[in-house]
Amino acid sequence: xxxxxxxxxxxxxxxxxxxxxxxxxxxxxxxxxADLIVTLNSIRDSDSTHDxxxxxxxxxQKRTEIxxxxxxxxxxxxxxxxxxxxxxxxxxxxxxxxxxAVMEASLSSAESVEELLEKFESELTKKKYIIxxxxxxxxxxxxxxxxxxxxxxMNDVFSGGLLEEYAQSNFNSFNKLLEDAE
Length: 182
Known about the structure:
The structure is a single chain. The protein is α+β, with helices and mostly antiparallel strands. 52% of the residues lie in helices and 21% in strands. It has 7 helices and 4 strands. It has helices spanning 2-22, 29-44, 65-72, 99-109, 113-124, 152-157, 162-181; strands at residues 75-84, 87-97, 130-142, 145-148. The longest helix is centred in the N-terminal third of the chain and has 21 residues, at 2-22. Mean pLDDT is 81; it is low at 16-24.
């Protein structure tokens, strides 16, 4: 009788160990940050063959040469990561060129489109035009990876601020049309 109890206890311990070993986890903070780094590098390098963990990303989207030069200048540092089950928030400090300020400075002295582009490219890397921006990004755990949720503020970072400027310009033009229609 003792042998049966001992055998049952032994089988229970083996089953428990097997369940613990097979338990699927959604990783730790290091896994979250590793997937985010892969994704941010892939976004920065639009010609990348890296895997990307970006929800609703368009992998066939290519940038113009000048837009890629802006994106290439973006650097980042992960500051803080918090996790709640299958969701995470990561605060990232971005360093990026202020492409709007560079464009304004280039426009003031350029006499042709070619000259404008040359001045823009030469001014783009100057330290006085590099700005800092902290953004909190949301990630969602799906199929063994942490996916970056869409974030317009982060997309604007990789455009050097031109995306926001363009959107604001369109918004202002639309409002003017509405005012003129009244």
